[in-house]
Design goal:
The protein has about 600 residues and is an alpha+beta fold. The protein folds into 3 domains: about 1-425, Glycosyltransferase, CATH 1.50.10.10; about 430-495, no CATH class; about 510-600, Immunoglobulin-like (Sandwich), CATH 2.60.40.4070. The chain contains 14 helices and 27 strands. The strands form 10 sheets. It has a 4-stranded antiparallel sheet with strand order 13-18-15-16. Strands 24-23-26-27 form a 4-stranded antiparallel sheet, with no helix packed on it. A 3-stranded antiparallel sheet has the order 7-8-9.
């Protein structure tokens, strides 16, 4: 614990030294700047899609051509379909182009038709474009089976397709029954093709399960078995990974025997450490902390990312070095930098900056983004390089697609920067697109982020470009829509829950705008709010479509306050029945957005 306190103290000093850090990367100054990158990724990966077969090729050269020298030119692997489908889904959710969503659906249906082991359950690793499986008796790995869920889960979130959900549940059942260790806890690393003789444990079986599907289904149903498993997986981070961090070994151990000790079947992996995996674990801890604010989650997240700032962050060139040897604390690959490791540094940095207010995390994210977009993004052909040198000026691996690389990390990178920076740090709304399945044309909860309750509100909805009125705080009623309709949903942050200062003084501070009463109302309604200090309050009222109604300025003392609105506009005319949005600014700072209903 003394080591933990030392890390926190050091981070506090950095935060004071770097006080009021202002990011300069365009994605952070205006998250709308992520859109061109997403569009570029879509165009690149679209060129790798076989429109006849409905699948993505696996081995891809720098210029987007199919790589032929490995003898794998006809591969259309499971991981490729799931990860590229994920990319296309997230791109559709941001830009609304249904051709990308259609492409994703075809890839996932190809994957299910050809990569699912019908007799034994689970997913094959290698599949050819003609649908054949060249190695049906290869062992099953937890990594491949978890990442098969990645694209399926994103597609379900965007469409609520019940058939896709049945495939997810079936996969989850197989992994629970075949790969979960009921004696020592955790998923095994691999098993034979028929699931016999499961062996070893690893980082992947813990954290990849969280990111591929557990977070999403837990958001939509906190009482589900998925949430229970997320909590259990997080306990494994705290009890199996974090304790292997010491003052002399800043990276946690990633590979274990079946009983979580030494003596695995791959002892070399027991000495591996990776900044991407470290920050990914921190990212997951921070997300669960928002649902379940256990101090141990945030402490561990800060320990992990604090270590990565100390040992893996390049203060000179920016970005994160990747794979390390835990015994020497030196990189395994000549200080090179990979694309995916940069993503997780930014994800952890933006989350922790919001939760703690420490500028060091924002500075780390900003610098890493500059390195990524300058050196890892291929500005000539599109897509993202796999690996570059320490200073970014030498391309080490220019491959764009392969057994471990697809469009997933780069698209997730931009997608979550768009959401996190907009909603958490800049207090701006975001718009996302959904296309509900014909069986889901009813009330559907929409929650695109693992975020505190009441911090995110749906404030506007359109169907095919026209206003849609039936929605609430966290749901849209798709009743009376038609199959194929595309809904554009605006999510706005509600800053009545604020996060201030460092972890030592971190507390949710409930203040500012509260729900009006009565609601619905006729003629007048009372709007309560709280002033943290004496000053000016500005209340603005809009129609649901954004039409300005009235703005009221007034001065109030510190403490609980109310304002009574008489249901009139700026000209003193009575407003019509309907849903109205009211926003409050206190001393020039946004302090909340809520909705109210006038019913005459």
């Amino acid at each position: 614990m003394k080591f933990f306190r030392g890390v926190f103290a050091a981070l506090f000093v950095w935060a004071v030294f770097l006080h009021a850090y202002t990011p300069t990367h365009p994605w952070l100054t205006d998250p709308e700047n992520t859109r061109p990158h997403l569009d570029s990724l879509a165009m690149f990966w679209e060129g790798t899609f076989n429109t006849e077969k409905g699948a993505f090729y696996t081995e891809i050269k720098r210029n987007g051509d199919i790589e032929t020298k490995w003898g794998t030119a006809d591969y259309a692997n499971t991981l490729t379909q799931s990860r590229n489908a994920y990319a296309m889904i997230r791109i559709f959710m941001v830009n609304g182009d249904t051709s990308y969503l259609n492409m994703a659906e075809r890839a996932l249906r190809f994957m299910r038709a050809h990569a699912w082991d019908e007799s034994r359950g689970g997913w094959y690793t290698v599949v050819k474009m003609d649908g054949s499986v060249p190695y049906p008796n290869d062992r099953k790995t937890i990594f491949q089976n978890l990442y098969a869920l990645l694209g399926l889960t994103a597609y379900w979130e965007c469409t609520r397709d019940p058939e896709i959900k049945s495939w997810i549940d079936e996969t989850f059942d197989v992994l629970e029954n075949r790969m979960w260790d009921t004696l020592h806890d955790g998923y095994f690393e691999y098993a034979n093709a028929n699931w016999s003789y499961p062996k070893d444990k690893s980082f992947n079986g813990i954290v990849d399960a969280i990111t591929t599907h557990l977070v999403t289904f837990s958001m939509y149903d906190p009482e589900s078995r998925y949430m229970s498993r997320w909590l259990e997986q997080t306990e494994l981070i705290l009890t199996k990974l974090v304790p292997t961090i010491t003052p002399d070994a800043p990276f946690f151990k990633e590979y274990f025997s079946s009983s979580w000790g030494d003596g695995s079947t791959d002892p070399n992996r027991e000495e591996w450490g990776n900044s991407g995996h470290m920050n990914k674990a921190s990212w997951c801890l921070a997300r669960l902390y928002r649902f379940n604010p256990q101090e141990a989650y945030l402490e561990a997240a800060e320990l992990i990312t604090g270590n990565m700032y100390d040992y893996a962050f390049d203060n000179e060139h920016g970005g994160m070095w990747g794979a390390f040897n835990r015994s020497t604390n030196l990189p395994n690959s000549n200080w090179n930098k990979s694309w995916w490791e940069q993503q997780h540094a930014v994800m952890a940095g933006l989350q922790l900056y919001d939760l703690t207010g420490k500028d060091v995390y924002l500075q780390m994210a900003d610098s890493t983004l500059h390195f990524y977009t300058r050196f890892l993004v291929d500005h000539q052909y599109g897509g993202v390089f796999a690996e570059v040198s320490n200073d970014g000026r030498t391309i080490i691996n220019d491959g764009k697609g392969g057994g471990w690389k697809a469009g997933y990390h780069s698209s997730e990178y931009a997608y979550y920067v768009y959401l996190y920076q907009s909603l958490l740090n800049l207090n701006r709304p975001v718009t996302l697109h959904f296309r509900p399945h014909e069986s889901a044309l009813n009330c559907q909860k929409l929650k695109p982020l693992a975020i505190e309750n009441d911090r995110l509100w749906i404030t506007a909805v359109e169907r095919n470009g026209e206003s849609w009125k039936t929605f609430g705080k966290d749901f849209v009623d798709f009743s009376h829509a038609e199959p194929g309709d595309v809904f554009t949903v605006t999510f706005s942050p509600d800053s009545t829950v604020q996060y201030v200062g460092t972890r030592e003084i971190y507390r949710p501070r409930h203040y500012a705008l509260q729900q009006n009463y009565p609601n619905p109302f006729n003629a007048t309604t009372v709007i309560p709010f709280t002033m943290d200090k004496e000053g000016q309050a500005e209340l603005t009222i809009y129609q649901l479509d954004g039409t300005f109604v009235q703005r009221i300025l007034f001065t109030r003392s510190a403490g609980e306050q109310t304002f009574t609105w008489n249901g009139t506009d700026a000209s003193g005319r009575d407003v019509a029945s309907g849903i109205y949005v009211y926003q409050l600014r206190i001393n020039g700072r946004h302090a909340g957005t809520r909705t109210m209903v006038m019913m005459k």
